[in-house]
Write a structure and sequence with these properties.
Shape: globular
Strand order of the largest sheet: 4-3-5-6-10-9
Number of strands: 10
Largest sheet: 6 strands, parallel
Distance between the termini: 23 Å
Length: 293
Amino acid sequence: PRATLFPYATLFRSVPPGRSSSGAGGRESRRGAHRCTETRSVHLDGALAGIRGDGDRSRCRRQASGFVAERDRSGRHLGSDQQLRGDDYLTYTHRGAYSFIGRGSDPKRLLAELCGKRTGYGKGKGGRHIADLEHGVLGKSGTVGGHAPIAVGVATAIQIQGGDQVVVSLFGEGTSNRGTTHSSMNTAAVWGLPIVWVCENNGYVGNVPASAYTAVPDIADMAASYGIPGEVVDGNDVLIVHEAAHRAVARARTGQGPSLLELKTYRLWPFGEGGADLRNPQEIEAWRSRDPI
């Protein structure tokens, strides 16, 4: 049943404020300005486990094609998605599959789309290029970096209409080098748009290490070029991501402009199922001990 497989489908609206006290809400811990109670932690743990389960079940492959691994990066998706309201928006590049789950999309329709079935979100014609407009997920661009101008367009419409919605735009560290990403971040900063840029840095584009194509170790340093806040976060700790996203979303929603979050994480699986993995096995095992689950 949906409620069993998908307990997090309603959680993106956030835990009710009344559950945040130290009474029925449980023991309270503070890692920053935003409080995270034991109850909230349990909700996030359940949602994270559900996302992992869905990743395990979604190994559907078409003939002569593989899939890009997502399973081990669920901590960052859930932590950021949980801060969004039902009327907020989300754009993504290749690494956004779990965002559908965090937003409450139907897992059956997601799997059907990946398998090329007409019951999928794009009637089987989109494959990994999925959109769920009902839940504000605007789809994966056909080109790396194409997510960013879409985010700017939607955020501009929100600003013109006087709304308080927020756009979260997800991308990987490789996409940070694209001209569309830079120009969109600059435009968002100049116009004070309600966007939270979220970079998932797993250290590799395919089998190429980040050090081979990025001059700085932290993508968040880009934020200084645009005069916006930039923060490096442990992407494997769902609570830390949750709290950092809370600050960034609150800033955007109150008209203070965009922010950039860089979530440091790692891809435990090969880039493509069945493909060569040229990374150091010891490095992989070291990161495996930090698995979000």
